[in-house]
Amino acid sequence: MGGFRTTLFVALTLVMTLTLAGQPAHAQDLEVYTFDEPAKEAVFQELIDELRCPKCQNQSIADSDAALARDLRDRTYLMVKSGASKQEVIDFMVARYGDFVHYQPPMTVATSILWWGPIAVLVIGGLVVLVRVRSQRSSEVELSPEDRLRLAELREAQKKDDDS
Amino acid sequence: MSNQWRWAVLLLPLLAFLLLVVFLLRGLFSDPTELSSALVGKPVPQFSVPDLYDPSQTYTQDVLRGEPLLLNVWATWCPTCRAEHEYLNQLAAQGVPIVGLNYKDDSRDKAVSWLNTLGDPYRLNLFDADGAVALELGVYGAPETFLIDADGLIRYRHVGDVNERVWQGELGQRYRALLTPGEG
What we know:
The complex is a heterodimer. By secondary structure, chain A is mainly alpha-helical. Chain A contains six helices and no strands. The longest helix of chain A has 27 residues, at 112-138. Chain A is elongated and about 100 Å long. Chain B has two domains: 1-29; 48-179, 3-Layer(aba) Sandwich (Glutaredoxin), CATH 3.40.30.10. Chain B is built from six helices and seven strands. Chain B has helices at residues 2-29, 79-93, 108-118, 132-137, 164-168, 170-179, and strands at 48-50, 58-60, 69-74, 98-103, 124-128, 144-148, 154-159. The longest helix of chain B has 28 residues, at 2-29. The chains are: A mainly alpha, B alpha/beta.
């Protein structure tokens, strides 16, 4: 009984995942944007997925049906259609809406911690481990000749005890 | 010597942790919808738009030069604009020059009747029917208020309604600083 339910659940999840994965969740009907060249259409598609809607902050302008997102899509369309390169459109948007509008923010002083922070943590952690291991090794005490003698005697005594 | 190092090893993670706490607390209390404008320090973009009342009259970016002023982006479909309108009337009565940019409104008539009913705090009324000027300004919602200096440079952008608190805060302070010669 339990096994059947699990199977059903897994099957349903699988079906839903596949159905959703098959269709990009675009809010608007992209058919209205027609291009004479497939290359331009590809650039347009990339752009509207990479540009972020400033109004509805966690959606790209392809996903959002806010009026502002439509305006930005329209402007992107016009620019790409009239021959603007991908970078030109991105520069145009960033000049007006700031780095925020692009989902791939440039590396600046402010964002560098996001890029280098994890690596820095790894390196620092590795160094700490290394230093600790080394200091432990060097703290192993060198035995004096008297101590050696005493150790040898103790071992000898131990051996005799074991034998008897 | 080695004792000092021991302290450093103990304190360093604590310091790092405290730094992280401060950083995260700041993030917790900051408003992610308040984006700073990409145009701060830049001149007002070029535009040419008709007057709200008189379609035959057009204005360019040059009307925003000459003295420090506020450029207020508004529309009748925007509830927060209604909320701030009375305060704008008060500011205008105090002599603060405000230029209105009507942003993608439902119709010209609707905007005009709004001003007739609620009062017109604007020295000039620009009619941006398709939102082209607003796009140049990086407007992402209404209301937004830009502080523009005498040379036509954008100095500050406030997102949301203008009220007493905002006017005592950064927007008003920056405006007053522009009025004092030798500052700003």
